[in-house]
Amino acid sequence: RKAAAFVTANNPLVKSYSKNIAANIRSDDRDLLDLNFRIGMGLFEALTLHGTGYVVDPSSAYINKSGNEASVDFVQFPSETLAYQAGDCDDLSVLYNAMLEASGIETAFITAPGHIFTAYSLGISMERAGRIFSDTSNLIDFDGKAWVPVEVTLVEKGFLEAWRVGAREWKETTQA
Predict the structure, then answer these.
(1) CA distance linking residue 120 with residue 100, whole number of Å
(2) Helix (H) or strand (E) holding 112
(3) Beta-carbon neighbour count of residue 173 at 10 Å?
(4) Element (H, E) at 62
């Protein structure tokens, strides 16, 4: 909940950056995949192309702060992470969620001991997702909608790897 306060989707830089990318994706008339899925993938790949990378915050890493309710982790605002082109798990998750939210896509944080990552809604039921995706095992069924879990720290490895790992982490988190 604390990280959600940093998701500033209306920040002019974040909004402009995200809406321009989403508009280009929307203008592509190929309807091979769900639109929210394509926008989520496009925004993620834009961060990769932007040169955004994962770095551990040495003074207040999330892993060191997450177990103590009284401690406060330093979290960058999305515009700062875009400008610095780097952040730790909470910074990158906040940025990615802000970009998705600025594009009109519902998001959520997923927390695991010492870690935070993200998921975004496809805005469709799992049943409909099953007609679009040949395998829905890497999607989350939540609140009657299909969600895509994404391990944003893998921004340098590409969307498909980040989705695969995010799904694995979600399964490990929910089975624990």
Answers:
(1) 8
(2) strand 107-112
(3) 15
(4) helix 62-65
- Token look-up 């082109």 returns 85
Sheet containing strand 140-142, strands side by side: 107-112, 115-121, 145-150, 140-142
Distances in Å between the Cα of 99 and the Cα atoms of 71, 77, 78, 96, 147 are: 27, 12, 8, 5, 16
pLDDT for the residue 63: 55
Rounded to whole angstroms, the Cα distance separating 95 from 80 reads 9
pLDDT, greater one: 17 or 70: 17
Write out pLDDT tens, residues 38-95. 999 999 999 999 999 999 876 555 455 555 554 446 899 999 999 999 999 999 999 9
**Rounded mean pLDDT of the chain?**
88
Angle at alpha carbon of residue 113, lines to 145 and 74, rounded to 5°: 95
